[in-house]
Amino acid sequence: MSTPGPRLEEITPANLDAALGIGVRPDQEHLVAPVVKSLAEAYVHPRTAWPRLIVDGDRPVGFLMACLDIDWYEDGSAFRSGLWRLNIAAGEQGRGYGRFAVESVAAELRRRGTKRLYVTWHPGPNGPEGFYAGLGFRPNGETSGDETVGVLDLS
Question: Can you name the residues that pair with 119 across neighbouring β-strands?
């Protein structure tokens, strides 16, 4: 019997195919890397990547990957944690799973003593800027490549 409501599961051999099957809407594919790329990055960054499958009952509904204490500038001057990837399945969007994912990452970071949750997003049509702003993220004036950097105070 499944637990009601959304929950996070570690990626295991038993749910790997379910995670790989998560696909966003076609108009969003240019905005977020596919799960397979995220899992490859998690494999090569095992100390900083925190990948999780989002499941509701028996249904895989999304994937998230947090980053934990990454060397933001790659020079040892700043370490940050945040939401690295968020993929909500095309047919599951608008049901609160994205909010659940962000709140779950925030709870994990608070548990670890982190004071700020970072995220990046591609600006433009169909992008997630409004979603993140609605959750309290604010652009901090930085960019990462062509993405806007947003931050949420966890204190």
Answer: 83, 150
